[in-house]
Write a structure and sequence with these properties.
The chain is α/β, with parallel strands linked by helices. Helix content is about 30%, strand content about 25%. The structure holds adenosine monophosphate.
Length: about 500
């Protein structure tokens, strides 16, 4: 019987001796060996009581076994729920309470702290540690290497991913078999993935980028992955010669560019570098091309929608843009207050519709109604603009929009100019409370190594370029911008840090 996602991604691996995972120590795991592990894990899930539609939550380190739990959950008809390994027991308690999984897998080192959390959520607890050991894999060892996947249609749920939730509580985005498969198919096609590809995989697998964009595309197309536990610059530089392609967040690329060993010769053989999850500075794009001869292919997506847009594989990959809507994805820019489509070239709310768009937030019908329109368009919360040739650019998050003295200010416009100033490596522009203006524009700068930006000179430099209301009312220099694991600047933390700047 059919299991839509399993049949496309994992069923073809059965009995195959092609390599699927290459580990940093040189060990290789064939597709067939992986498939046998998935079968044993699927039996173990069923033995743990996981029935179709049940959630399987995991907070485990990235490993071949962790990836196999994802595949096994899909095979058993369950819903896979990976959690960021950085979450504390208190945070995990919220997720388990909200998702009420049948089974929760955690690292052995955290078992004692998480046992009461699992218990109060009514979840069974088993261990899967970073080295692949623990009660779950050990219990699975005796099961058969073959498992008949549970029937699942395209509309059935395959995964919940909780939104990163930089504001408010995280929401569980419900993703169906069809959401995930349709996006993997489109990306594989658009980015020309084949069974000859070896993807250097240094992303976490608790997030849409590393789990779905990377793993689903490679599993679908029959290639291999060099599976690193995380991003380690030395390891990436050592292993790049064995890869054909790499997917990264912008910080991967800035860190690589900081290393003289990362040069044209090292990556001459590479086919593709992609970037997403956070904005790639146009400057990084240009520097990358100058150094390596490759143009990074930037794309745009989110937990709730998978990928929405991509720069072209063939054709111009334009710095500072996220390219065109993917085939099958409708994208429009609307006035956030009326929902009316805006004329091309005007900035507004990005809304998307397509087979990639999720089913709603788990047990949050009101939040779902607020963000997912009845006609199927999802209100992304991102402000964007489409240029004359159809390239989409992200201007910022709607919640980061600054309203100062009644005027709307998009931080990106100011950040781009601040980034050009002498001594400035990068910047983040935020709104902070101000007694007269409601909010004031405030710029947070990071200095280039060995340089000291001069705030007064920078303010003078902005005067001729930006309308008065857009000019920062203050600037501060910090050692680095706070970023989450996916490289996104956490503006909420900066707003908190500088909220008293203009207090009376
Ligand atoms: P997440 O749900 O954690 O994947 O975060 C999704 C958000 O990341 C989007 O709504 C955007 O705000 C941001 N994002 C993703 N890709 C890009 C990109 N290429 N450029 C700018 N922002 C991006």
């Amino acid at each position: 019987m059919a299991n839509v996602l399993y049949d496309a991604l994992f069923a073809p691996m059965e009995g195959s001796d092609r390599r699927l995972l290459v580990l940093p120590d040189g060990r290789e795991i064939s597709a067939g060996a992986f498939s046998a592990m998935v079968a044993r894990f699927s039996h173990a899930l069923v033995a743990a009581g996981v029935a179709p539609g049940d959630r399987v939550a995991v907070q485990v380190a990235k490993s071949p076994e962790a990836l196999a739990v994802y595949a096994a959950t899909v095979a058993a008809g369950g819903i896979f729920l990976p959690l960021n390994t950085a979450y504390t027991a208190e945070e995990v308690s919220y997720f388990l309470g909200n998702a009420t999984p049948k089974l929760f897998l955690c690292d052995g080192a955290k078992e004692a702290a998480l046992a009461p959390v699992a218990k109060s959520a009514g979840a069974g607890l088993q261990v899967l540690s970073a080295d692949g050991s623990g009660s779950f894999p050990e219990g699975a060892a005796g099961f058969s290497d073959h498992f008949e996947p549970v029937a699942r249609s395209g509309d059935d749920l395959a995964a919940f991913l909780y939104t990163s939730g930089t504001t408010g509580r995280s929401k569980g985005a419900m993703l169906t078999h069809s959401n995930l498969l349709s996006n993997a198919e489109v990306l594989a096609q658009e980015w020309r993935f084949t069974d000859a590809d070896v993807l250097l995989h240094a992303l976490p697998i608790f997030h849409t980028h590393g789990l779905f964009v990377a793993c689903n595309v490679v599993c679908l197309t029959g290639g291999a992955m060099i599976f690193l536990p995380g991003f380690d610059r030395d390891e990436v530089i050592r292993l790049l010669p064995q890869a054909t392609s790499m997917m990264g967040v912008p910080t991967f690329y800035t860190r690589l560019l900081d290393d003289p060993r990362f040069d044209r010769q090292l990556v001459e053989h590479m086919r593709l570098f992609t970037s997403g999850s956070a904005p790639l500075l146009a400057e990084t794009h240009v520097e990358f091309e100058g150094r390596t001869g490759h143009r990074i292919l930037e794309r745009y997506g989110m937990t709730e929608t998978n990928m929405n847009t991509s720069n072209p594989y063939e054709g111009e990959r334009r710095a500072g843009t996220v390219g065109f809507p993917l085939p099958g994805v409708e994208l429009k820019i609307v006035d956030p207050s009326t929902g009316e489509t805006l004329p091309r070239g005007e900035a507004g709310m990005i809304e998307v519709r397509g087979p990639n768009v999720f089913k709603g937030y788990w047990q949050m019908p009101e939040k779902t109604r607020e963000e997912l329109r009845e006609d199927g368009f999802f209100i992304t919360g991102d402000i964007g603009v489409i240029d004359a040739e159809g390239y989409v650019s992200i201007v910022g998050r709607a919640k980061d929009l600054i309203i100062t003295g009644g005027y709307n200010v998009y931080p990106k416009e100011i950040e781009l100019i601040l980034d050009e100033q002498e001594g400035v490596l990068e910047s983040a522009v935020i709104g902070v409370p101000h007694p007269d203006f409601g909010e004031a524009v405030f710029g947070v700068l990071v200095a280039r190594a060995g340089e000291t930006p001069d705030p007064q000179a920078i303010m003078a430099g902005l005067a001729g370029r930006l309308a008065k209301f857009k000019q920062p009312k203050g600037l501060a220099v910090v050692a680095e911008l706070p970023r989450n694991t996916m490289g996104k600047v956490q503006k909420n933390l900066l707003r908190d840090q500088f909220k008293g700047r203009f207090a009376k």
